[in-house]
Design a protein that fits this description.
heterodimer, A: mainly beta, 7-stranded mixed β-sheet, 4-stranded antiparallel β-sheet, globular, B: mainly beta, 11 strands, about 0% helix, about 55% strand, disordered N terminus
Chain lengths: ~110, ~110
């Protein structure tokens, strides 16, 4: 039973480019959560999605960031016009229902040149 | 002993000793708590959880204690092994919400 899969594991972008981070939840999980982690810090909630719906995006910057979880395919976190401050590890988690523990992928490490 | 590093507090223990990692949570409305282990380059891994109607829960080699009066959570690891070296995070969630609030983490170093 495969866990949460994130790709790419490492992503390098130049300032002003777009970054697309993908997350395939565990089989049977329809709840997806995105978090951001800076070095030596805890994880900060960004957005919570169910299939085709954004439930809570209160932790996500209003500009340049967007997330989706289509009916078919992985969840996508998209960052447009990246800046140096976007450099971080981005983790995706999934759960079968809201009140069950979230299972995490191994993250995408985004570096902005 | 315990020391404060650049960002993460660090707990160093001898192999075979018991470890106790502490966490002060912020929201008195939180009713569900999880301990996660994060190894370098990996995502957080679920260790054990506890609901607010309990004050103690045991797993394999791990015990979580919850003191709601002082909003304190602890993780006890028995007979600590080198493979236990990692950063440990507590996470809290309030009833009716889906947002987990993560603590800043504690780095556990196991000395041979």
């Amino acid at each position: 039973n495969a866990g949460v899969m994130q790709n790419p594991r490492h992503l390098v972008r130049r300032r002003g480019q777009e970054a697309r981070l993908r997350c395939s939840p565990m089989k049977g999980h329809s709840h997806v959560y995105w978090y951001r982690q800076l070095p030596e810090e805890g994880l900060k909630f960004m957005v919570y999605l169910q299939k085709e719906n954004i439930i809570d995006e209160s932790g996500m910057p209003k500009e340049r960031f967007s997330a989706e979880f289509p009916k078919e395919g992985p969840s996508i976190l998209r960052i447009q016009q990246v800046v140096r401050g976007d450099s971080a590890a981005y983790f995706c988690a999934s759960s079968p229902v809201q009140n069950q523990p979230q299972h995490f992928g191994d993250g995408t490490r985004l570096s902005i040149l | 002993g315990e020391s404060v590093g650049l960002h993460l507090p660090t707990l160093s223990v001898q192999e075979g000793d018991n470890s106790i990692i502490n966490c002060a949570y912020s929201n008195s409305a939180s009713d569900y708590f999880i301990w996660y282990k994060q190894e370098s380059g990996k995502g957080p891994q679920f260790i054990i959880d506890i609901r607010s109607n309990m004050d103690k829960r045991q797993g394999q080699r791990v015990t979580v204690l919850l003191n709601k009066t002082v909003k304190h959570l602890s993780l006890q690891i028995a007979a600590t092994q080198p493979g236990d070296s990692a950063v440990y995070f507590c996470a809290e969630k309030a009833s009716g919400t889906y947002k987990y609030i993560f603590g800043t983490g504690t780095r556990l170093k196991v000395l041979a």
